[in-house]
């Protein structure tokens, strides 16, 4: 299983939100390159970056900061937040990003999603952010009446190779992740699943690995030293 330490960007700073609430922001690093150095020292090989401003506005607000992070590492980097047209996909891929993540665009423009998946294949992932198992969009500020699990099935059927599933109610709360939904997804969805939201304990890493989950995104728990990054990378291998 792959461990993706996360850098969430707001105003060019590395932050974490609680339950996706933009009013509950904690700044961890004013210069995100500092946290990148920490990841390097702890044997990371992958990185998950979210442009929170972009997710909310629909624009690539933190592109220059992401450019610096890409240029200063040889990680496998996936980026999401505000990627809503092909021009932005190409811009990130040309920059050296390994995979781009579609969220709102995947829900609101299914024809675009199908076209991009067929064109870019594994360089496209879809983020499914769930609030009470309903899909949330636009930086988690708007909840649709779409069942998140059924949406994952649809994504898998159209050929999306990688799905990042986040239970918003767990995100940033440091109280554990929703193991049950990943157990169900691992049994019924063909796509690779990355678990995101609330991963707090090393036992969860072991359990997700045993379910053949492809990846796990860890954020607040490593920033708060609840999880040892180097240790969980070892557990996941």
H/E series: EEEHEHHEHEHHEEEHEHEHEHH
- State the major sheet: 8 strands, parallel, barrel
Give the strand order, joined by hyphens, for the main sheet.
Answer: 1-4-5-6-7-10-11-12
Shape: globular
Question: What share of the residues does DSSP label as strand, in percent?
Answer: 25-35%
Gyration radius, rounded: 16 Å
Overall pLDDT score: 94
Task: Quickly give the structural class.
Answer: alpha/beta
Low-pLDDT segments: none
Features:
single chain, 237 residues, alpha/beta, 8-stranded parallel barrel, 11 helices, 39% helix, 30% strand
Would you kindly provide a brief summary of this structure?
The chain is α/β, with parallel strands linked by helices and 237 residues long.
List the helices and strands and how they pair.
Layout: E1 2-10, E2 13-18, E3 21-29, H1 32-41, E4 46-51, H2 52-57, H3 63-71, E5 76-80, H4 86-95, E6 99-102, H5 104-108, H6 110-120, E7 124-131, E8 134-137, E9 142-147, H7 148-157, E10 162-167, H8 179-188, E11 192-196, H9 202-210, E12 215-218, H10 220-223, H11 229-236
Parallel strand pairs: 1-4, 1-12, 4-5, 5-6, 6-7, 7-10, 10-11, 11-12
Antiparallel strand pairs: 1-2, 2-3, 7-8, 8-9
Helix pairs in contact: 9-11
């Amino acid at each position: 299983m792959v461990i993706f330490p996360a850098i969430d960007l707001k105003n060019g700073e590395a932050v974490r939100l609680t339950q996706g609430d933009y009013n509950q922001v904690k700044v961890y690093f004013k210069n995100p390159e500092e946290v990148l150095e920490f990841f390097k020292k702890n044997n990371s090989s992958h990185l998950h970056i979210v442009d929170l401003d972009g997710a909310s506005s629909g624009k690539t607000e933190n592109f220059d900061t992401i450019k610096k992070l890409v240029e200063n590492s040889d990680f496998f980097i996936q980026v999401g937040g505000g990627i809503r047209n092909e021009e932005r996909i190409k811009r990130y891929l040309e920059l050296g990003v390994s995979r781009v993540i579609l969220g709102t665009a995947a829900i609101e423009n299914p024809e675009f999603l199908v076209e991009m998946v067929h064109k870019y294949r594994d360089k496209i992932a879809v983020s499914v952010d769930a609030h009470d198992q309903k899909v949330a969009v636009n930086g988690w500020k708007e909840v649709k009446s779409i069942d998140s699990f059924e949406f994952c099935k649809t994504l898998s059927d159209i050929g999306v190779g990688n799905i990042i599933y986040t239970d918003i109610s767990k995100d940033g709360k440091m109280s554990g992740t929703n193991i049950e939904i990943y157990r169900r997804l691992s049994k019924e969805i063909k796509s690779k699943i990355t678990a995101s939201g609330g991963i707090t304990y090393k036992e969860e890493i072991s359990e997700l690995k045993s379910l053949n989950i492809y990846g796990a995104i860890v954020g607040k728990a490593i920033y708060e030293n609840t999880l040892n990054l180097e240790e969980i990378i070892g557990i996941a291998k």
